[in-house]
Design goal:
Helix 2 crosses helix 5 and helix 4 (about 90-100) crosses helix 5. This protein has one domain: C8orf32 fold, CATH 3.10.620. The relative contact order is 0.20. It contains six helices and seven strands, in the order βαααβαβαββββα. Helices cover about 35% and strands about 20% of the residues. By secondary structure, it is of the alpha/beta class. A five-stranded mixed sheet has the order 1-7-4-5-6, with helices on one face. The chain has a two-stranded parallel ribbon with strand order 2-3.
Amino acid sequence: MISGAAVVELDPREHFGLIKQLQEMERLVLVGAKDPFIVKNAMRIVSAFEPRIARKAYLQEIAALLQYAQGIHPTLGGLRYQRDPYEVTSIPSYVEEKGGGDAAELAVWLAAHLLAIGHGPLRFVVISDSSSRRPDDFVHVYLHYGNPESDRVRWFALDPTQEKPMGWEYPNPGKKAYYEIGAEEDEG
């Protein structure tokens, strides 16, 4: 759990550019999740995990995909974090082809792979750095997976840029905001 982070609503007047970027990331996730390559790739990554993952061990499947995105999958290695000076977010299959991406690309890659094999709900989490000179600027993005197996959804953090387990979050961000993936598609 994040301590001391102020959860804020994204205001279209104040956060127009960020909202547009999150909408584009969501589009890439939803298109990627239907790509046969992504479906096959997700199954390949989960199937190659050692020790073998039992059927319907959903949290272990999610952990296997997270570890691949972090570059620490025990048998396949995986992707790597790469800075993107141009801030261009690529489709998940291209992220796989080039072997990595920045925080936004890795979050999109992971979300598309999770949705491709039926894991959700998901949301993007954007955070600001409380120690920076501009603590109101959102500087990082990662995912939350909502585990629907209980009476209410319990959210688990999935940060593909950190070699940390599922559930780990930055201890003291300044602010954070959520963006539900596929929320409008569910309503329609």
